[in-house]
Specification:
Layout (H helix, E strand, L loop, with lengths): L5 E12 L1 H4 L5 E12 L2 E5 L8 H7 L2 E2 L2 H7 L9 E3 L18 E5 H7 L7 H4 L5 E5 L3 E4 L2 E5 L8 E7 L2 E5 L7 H15 L13 H5 L3 E5 L12
Parallel strand pairs: 3-5, 5-6, 6-7, 11-12
Antiparallel strand pairs: 1-2, 1-4, 2-3, 8-9, 9-10, 10-11
Length: 233
């Protein structure tokens, strides 16, 4: 491997979010994206795709899957090459490939794993499976030098984001901390307006956003949006 860090997007399919969940009159088709982080220490896989959630959920979301092994092969690696798994959270469309990676450490916030094990949260078989090897984290953690896990609660209480330093700046793998790049952009501007001392009223933004922006991100990537946030200059 090279001395630098490389981040590659993996297309793992899509699903159809019904109109009842979009806040609008129509359903919305959403990508399911994972990310492969290549380092000297090994390969980190951030999210693993859509799992089988049973007939009711299948009918509700109509998922179309791309096999994780096929997506990895397109990037020149295999399931056996993955060193470490990080899920932004444990819903079925983010941890579906975890059972294929038994024995590999899976980094998860302790509150997320506890919630997933309480039932009525996700698919139990995608959480506790043969070879599941969780490493629970409480708060921030530097996984490898320059690779940070940052808690970003909101979508779930235990949601987490990965910050990866590269030679040309930091890449933020935001998962579902924001659904869309435009939502992140709006929050970033609201945060900036507050720093500039603009008078209220101002829109509220996520309380952890300032911590992410301390990394001076050059790119922010998302789990369900192919768009990429980049600073204006």
């Amino acid at each position: 491997m090279t001395n630098d860090t490389a981040v590659r997007r993996l297309d793992l399919g899509y699903f159809v979010r019904p109109a009842s969940e979009t806040g609008g009159p129509q359903p919305r088709v959403e990508s399911v994206l994972a990310y492969l982080v290549r380092r000297e220490e090994g390969l980190i896989l951030f999210d693993t795709g859509i799992g089988d959630a049973g007939p009711d959920t299948e009918a509700h979301y109509r998922p179309q899957r791309r096999k994780l092994g096929k997506a990895l092969a397109a990037s020149g690696v295999s399931l056996a090459d993955v060193s470490l798994v990080v899920n932004c959270h444990l819903h079925f469309d983010h941890c579906g490939g975890n059972p294929l990676l038994g024995g590999r450490p899976i980094l998860v916030q302790d509150v997320e794993l506890a919630a997933a094990r309480q039932g009525d949260y996700t698919v139990d078989a995608l959480v506790d499976f043969p070879g599941a090897a969780y490493e629970e984290i409480s708060g921030e953690a530097e996984v490898w030098p320059g690779v940070w896990i940052i808690p970003t609660p909101g979508h779930t209480d235990g949601h987490q984001t990965l910050a990866v330093r590269q030679s040309d700046g930091t890449v933020i793998l935001a998962g579902q901390a924001h659904d869309f790049a435009s939502h992140f952009a709006a929050d970033q501007l609201a945060h900036l307006a507050g720093l500039h001392g603009l008078e209220e009223p101002l829109p509220t933004c996520r309380p952890w956003l300032g911590r992410l922006l301390e990394f001076d991100p050059r790119r922010v990537l998302f789990a369900h949006d192919c768009s990429v946030w980049e600073p204006p200059c």
